[in-house]
Design goal:
Length: 289
């Protein structure tokens, strides 16, 4: 891989808002690095990226995270770094991980996947979802548990990021999966990951504004819908999810903190909690009728 100019995004996150700000920044791709808190409790955060980020998008992500956390959005600086192969270096630093039956790895991992595992090759890129964040791991564990007891004929990954959850559903159920994201980079990355993982014929990737994407209505209703995004967006889309979920379908909701659980459940009535997975500060909910 050729060396490319790299960029660094720096800010100081209020301590209590750090998890939400980290999740928001992870959607930019690259490596998120935090230092120890300062005397005022603020935590320095750096994000190393292979390409110059869109400042408007960065500000919007931080504003949404700040609003969800109840704090002012932190000021951010974006600077260019010397030319080097930052992407390759960040990929080499990410070892393979096992999440339930899933073996998540990058191309730099040469060891064969463990027997009986479900391999998911996902590179560190410009879309969120390498399987390392608690919200993504929670979704993978929830999907694996669902596959043990139910069939799925149609699935939807809303806000697909890297496509890791769409790929997981395609491999678990061998069913058609629609992956939708409003970010063009995420759509491109998901399509590439579907090809690399041998499920391109099952995973349809579309660029669209959430449930307003016309393909969502055309392919539904869905037996399983996954949303791994922020709690505010999950609540806002709840009426659309309820409309497109099959009568006996289930939804996997993640990207929310423990204290946001009841708010998310209330927004999705009459669906009820089927399972709750807590990993660190993060909760993954499985809900259904």
């Amino acid at each position: 891989m050729a060396a490319t100019p790299a960029w660094c995004l720096r800010l100081v996150a209020p301590g209590g808002a750090l998890p939400l700000i980290e999740l928001a920044l992870a959607q930019l791709g690259g490596a998120v690095v935090t230092d120890g808190p300062g005397a005022d409790g603020g935590v320095p955060v750096s994000v190393y990226l292979a390409a110059e980020p869109d400042r408007t998008r960065v500000v919007a992500l931080l504003a949404a995270a700040g609003l969800a956390a109840g704090v002012a959005a932190p000021e951010v600086s974006i600077t260019a770094l010397p030319v080097t192969d930052w992407v390759a270096q960040s990929q080499q630093s990410l070892p393979a991980i096992q999440v339930g039956p899933f073996y998540v790895y990058g191309a730099h991992v040469t060891a064969p996947p463990p027997e009986e595992s479900i391999p998911l090759r996902i590179e560190a890129a410009v879309a969120f979802g390498t399987g390392r964040h608690e919200s993504t791991r929670g979704c993978l564990l929830a999907l694996a548990a669902l596959a043990e007891s139910r069939r799925c004929n149609r699935a939807l990954d809303m806000g697909c990021g890297s496509g890791i959850l769409a790929l997981a559903m395609a491999k678990l159920w061998a069913c058609p999966v629609l992956a939708v994201d409003s970010d063009a980079d995420a759509v491109r990355v998901t399509a590439g990951n579907a090809r690399v993982n041998g499920v391109a014929e099952l995973v349809a990737v579309r660029h669209g504004d959430g449930f307003r994407c016309s393909e969502v209505a055309r392919r539904g209703p869905y037996d399983v819908i996954v949303e791994n995004i922020l709690a505010e967006a999950i609540c806002a889309m709840a009426p659309h999810l309820l409309h497109h979920l099959a009568a006996d379908g289930v939804a996997v909701l993640s990207g929310l903190l423990a204290e946001q659980t009841e708010e998310v459940l209330a927004a999705h009535a009459p669906l009820r909690r089927r399972q709750e997975i807590r990993l660190g500060d993060w909760v993954t909910l499985v809900v259904g009728k």
